[in-house]
From TrEMBL:
GO MF assignments: 2-dehydro-3-deoxy-D-gluconate 5-dehydrogenase activity
Primary gene name: kduD
Family statement: Belongs to the short-chain dehydrogenases/reductases (SDR) family.
Protein name stated in the entry: KduD protein
Lineage of the species this protein comes from: Bacteria, Pseudomonadati, Pseudomonadota, Alphaproteobacteria, Rhodobacterales
Alphabetized InterPro entries for the sequence: KR_dom (IPR057326), NAD(P)-bd_dom_sf (IPR036291), SDR_fam (IPR002347)
Pfam families in alphabetical order: adh_short_C2 (PF13561)
Native species: Jannaschia aquimarina
Domain Ketoreductase: 12-205
Assigned EC number: 1.1.1.127
CDD domains, sorted: SDR_c
Length: 256
């Protein structure tokens, strides 16, 4: 897929949560191809992916193994990224887990786990990045990944959709609070992106057809389809856009 070039992203310090697989891997590659200095955190070993990206782009990302749900691990990774690449000026909160669950079956432990990865980690990644941006006196751009799932009122993962809605509220409040410091905060809400995980677990033929029938554009979304919109939000080209939710879903939901 052809991507636009964003010169201001060259040599920019980027930090991506969950940047080693799925949509996150596509984002890592997209920023690398812009010439950015990319660091990402993930729980699973991504050494092979790092080598692959260096060979494909000529630009080697920094992988830091860690758990975004543990603040000490998350902050340590972000500090390591800032030390290697300079203060983080673009944060992409991408890590999430849309584990399906029946509302009547969940317990407090599952609630805590789901919220910790799908909402809590977003707040504290933003907090730590903003502290670094303001300390360095730099403007910054934050992209928080949400989902159209809560806009559709989807059943089968109520805690996940609650977190998605919370991400939008968090995004709007942070945009208002830190706009005077030159920090922009936007959300990006993808539709059903067919990552390998989705294909393995939930993308049966009937579900795929039903969802495609709801789209205006009759073509399934791939991870690469999310890269361009993310680069746009992270670039100065969108410098007067903040507190917004950009939907990229092939036309399932409408906003405005």
């Amino acid at each position: 897929m052809i991507q636009a070039s964003f010169p201001d992203l060259r040599d920019a310090s980027i930090f991506i949560t969950g940047g080693g697989s799925g949509i996150g891997a596509a984002l890592t590659e997209g920023f690398l191809r812009q010439g950015a200095r990319v660091a990402f955190i993930g729980r699973s070993d991504a050494s092979a992916f790092v080598d692959e990206m260096e060979e494909a782009t000529g630009n080697r990302p920094l992988f830091i193994q860690g758990d975004v749900t543990e603040n000490a691990s998350l902050f340590r990774a972000m500090d390591q990224a800032a030390e290697a690449h300079g203060p983080i000026t673009r944060l992409v909160n991408n890590a999430a887990n849309d584990q399906r669950h029946a509302t009547l079956d969940v317990d407090e432990a599952f609630w805590d786990w789901s919220i910790s990865i799908n909402l809590k980690a977003y707040l504290f990644a933003c907090q730590h990045a903003i502290r670094g941006m303001t300390a360095a006196g730099l403007p910054g751009h934050i992209v928080n990944f949400s989902s159209i799932s809560y806009m559709m009122g989807n059943a089968g993962y109520a805690i996940y959709t609650a977190a998605n809605s919370g991400i939008n509220g968090l995004t709007r409040s942070l945009a208002r609070e830190f706009g005077p410091d030159g920090i922009r905060v936007n959300a990006l809400a993808p539709g059903w992106v067919l990552t390998q995980k989705q294909l393995d677990l939930w993308a049966d033929p009937d579900s795929l057809k039903a969802h495609l029938d709801r789209q205006c554009i009759p073509e399934h979304l791939a991870p690469d389809d999310i890269v361009g919109p993310t680069l746009f939000l992270a670039s100065d080209i969108s410098k007067m856009m903040t507190g917004q939710a950009l939907v990229v879903d092939g036309g399932v939901v409408t906003t405005g």
